[in-house]
Design a protein that fits this description.
This protein folds into two domains: 191 residues, Rossmann fold (3-Layer(aba) Sandwich), CATH 3.40.50; 102 residues, Rossmann fold (3-Layer(aba) Sandwich), CATH 3.40.50.40. It is 28% helix and 23% strand. It is built from seven helices and 14 strands. An eight-stranded mixed β-sheet has the order 2-1-3-4-5-6-9-10, sandwiched between helices. Helix 3 runs parallel beside helix 7 and helix 5 runs parallel beside helix 6.
Length: 315
């Protein structure tokens, strides 16, 4: 059997707390991926290797960490004896990492991202099952000739281009914005198909990670939004580097408060690209005749920020 390489990046899945009954009181990224795997005898029957790429709370994800992750992924995916990759991640920015990698990988091998909503010391820790499921999915996907980026959480297999965190504390915290999971994994580890095929990978290659990313920010539309945040972003960028893009997390179908319009026009005049998403959990923003700003489709605002960065880099 070929190996599955498990990359550790920290996150709640590697978190620990002093009191098992206070599951919210913990520090993320305290255990190494080697420690997590060693504590799981069920994983011993599978051919795995572990590599520690980072040890962070994923709320602190950065372009530098994505560069480190990308370099390791590129190295491991090029190995003939590796059938797939599992990334143990944090939940907070999982959707951003998954979308970025979806756009970059060539889709020849599976890249499976998993995480946990409870720390490793919690009595109902979900990390062990999620990690076991992720390894099983990587091996089964490779056996079927399926590649690309997926996320495995709470028995669901979600497309990396669609997955997003939908609940702040539930174990069943992820979905695909209303789209069906690609597959379901039952308690015995059996795979049940939900859709006929996996989304094609972006196949952009790893070169964007070698560049300095353009500065792109997210601004929400809300009651009393008067453009102050847009003006502040432009002023800050003037002193600390150029602002290149703005993603507007609009109300409803990406609608924007009228108080934002003049400020956004000023931003566009300064060469800033403005895209429009929604702060609503499902449905996204579809293009319509007369749109002033590009609609981001079904992407979340966080995913749209990654997409706009790639767009501005020529991807």
């Amino acid at each position: 059997m070929q190996n599955v390489v498990i990359l550790g990046t920290g996150g709640t899945i590697a978190g620990t707390g002093a009191d098992p009954d206070r599951v919210w009181d913990y520090r993320a990224g305290q255990l190494s991926i080697a420690q997590l795997v060693k504590a799981m005898p069920d994983l011993a029957v599978y051919p795995t290797e572990v590599v520690q790429v980072a040890q962070v709370d994923s709320k602190d994800m950065s372009w530098q960490l994505w560069q480190d992750m990308g370099r390791e992924l590129q190295r491991q995916l090029a190995r003939d004896d590796v059938s797939g990759i599992v990334i143990a991640h944090g939940t907070d920015t999982l959707e951003e990492t998954a979308y970025l990698l979806h756009r970059l990988v060539d889709g020849r091998k599976p890249v499976v991202i998993t995480a946990a909503m409870r720390p490793a010391t919690a009595p109902d820790a979900d990390g062990p099952r999620n990690l076991l499921d992720a390894v099983r999915v990587a091996l089964e996907a490779a056996r079927r000739g399926l590649g690309g980026v997926v996320a495995v959480m709470h028995g669901g297999v979600w497309a990396g281009s669609q997955v997003r965190k939908m609940h702040s504390w539930s174990l069943d915290a992820f979905d695909a914005g209303g789209q069906a999971p690609l597959a379901l994994i039952d308690a015995q580890g059996q795979w049940h198909d939900e859709v006929a095929s996996w989304p094609a990978s972006g196949n952009a290659g790893w070169w964007p990670l070698n560049l300095t990313p353009p500065r792109v920010e997210i601004i929400h539309s809300h009651a009393d939004a008067d453009g102050w945040m847009v003006d502040a972003a432009l002023a800050h960028a003037h002193e600390h580097g150029p602002l290149k893009g703005l993603v507007m997390a609009g109300t409803g179908h990406g609608t924007l408060h009228k108080g934002l319009e003049a400020a956004l026009a000023k931003a566009v005049a300064h060469g800033v690209t403005v895209w429009r998403s929604s702060r609503v959990a499902r449905g996204g923003v579809q293009s319509r005749e007369g749109d002033a700003f590009v609609a981001c489709g079904e992407l979340t605002a966080a995913q749209a920020r990654v997409a706009l960065m790639l767009y501005l880099m020529g991807v």
